[in-house]
Amino acid sequence: MPPAPFTVALIQDGVAPAKAETLERTIASIRAAHVRGAQVICLKELFDAPYFCKKLDLERFDLAEPIPGPTVSRLSALSRELEIVLVVPMYERQGPGVYRNSAVVIDADGTVQGVYRKMHIPHDPLFEEKYYFAPGEAHDPVQPSGTRGPSGEAGGFMVWKTRYATIGVLICWDQWYPEAARITALLGAEILLYPTAIGWHPAEKAALGEAQVNAWRTAQRAHAIASGVFVAAANRTGFEDEDGTDGIEFFGHSFVYDPFGRPLAEAGTEEAIVMATCDPRRIEETRRNWPFLRDRRVDAYGPILNRWIGPRGA
């Protein structure tokens, strides 16, 4: 029997001044998405805090929570009540001095299935993430429950077989890396979910803004086509300058693409709930007609493990 279609929702929003208020607003949006038929709901990167990585500030480590912790417990109860799958990206305090940019996968019975920890950590102006986050481990065998991900893992990349869909989660900067998307698709993901916080530097928007959004869309659309998998990105929106920097205008444009790269849903820059129904039969159909996975030369890809190769003889 083929897997059933599932409905995914992406919550595209900003943050309130207080963490507790943001959580309540997010819960209201989750409930609204559920009323509209959402079964798998993904929040934005670091959903319950301002994007605090714009400058270095030791006190911002206090924003982190353990997993499980109070926020996860609250949203686990909500998942169980509504019988929905939630992807909850948050700042994780894994241990003393060890902090991660993480996403918790909560199944429709409220069970925490596992945690994905962002593998690629950027270091750019206003995106000072290497100061705040350790990267996900190349081999991350233990989840909060003490077990491996139910469906599988390869290095730090994981998939989870939830009640409604087999999902893979990658976070923001991960979205530029075809290797991450390919491995997660090969693990059996039906959809790649990318919680995101990406936007414009004010000085760059006029000259580069449109090109930056198009590059962001194109990279992820290419993942959908190359691996024959649904791809969805939940971005934040709104201008954040609360820390005395020039700020970032998060540009939204959250989307869902099908395995052929066709857009199923997309938002503008406003707050929105982006929804689409994904039929896994499209994955099989697309891969039969465009058999990229069949024709891969896995015996020839060893050099990809080098950071740089250079011309032969150099």
Q: What separation lies between the terminal Cα atoms?
A: 55 Å
Poorly predicted tracts of residues:
144-150
CATH architecture: 4-Layer Sandwich
Order of adjacent strands in the largest pleated sheet: 6-7-8-9-11-14-15
* Total count of strands: 16
Work out the helix count: 6
Computed structural class: alpha+beta
Stated plainly, the CATH topology is called Nitrilase/N-carbamoyl-D-aminoacid amidohydrolase
Rounded Rg: 19 Å
Q: What would your notes on this structure say?
A:
It is built from six helices and 16 strands. The protein is α+β, with helices and mostly antiparallel strands. It has one domain (6-305): Nitrilase/N-carbamoyl-D-aminoacid amidohydrolase. Helix 1 (19-35) runs parallel beside helix 2 and helix 4 (178-186) packs parallel to helix 5.
Give a brief description.
The chain has about 325 residues and is α+β, with helices and mostly antiparallel strands. The chain has helices spanning about 20-35, 70-80, 130, 180-185, 205-225, 280-290, and strands at about 5-10, 40, 85-95, 100-105, 110-115, 150-155, 155-160, 165-170, 190-195, 200, 230-235, 235-240, 250, 255, 265, 270-280.
Please render the helix and strand layout as text.
Elements: E1 6-12, H1 19-35, E2 40-42, H2 70-82, E3 85-95, E4 98-106, E5 112-117, H3 129-132, E6 152-154, E7 157-161, E8 166-169, H4 178-186, E9 191-196, E10 199-200, H5 205-227, E11 230-235, E12 237-240, E13 248-251, E14 255-257, E15 263-266, E16 272-278, H6 281-289
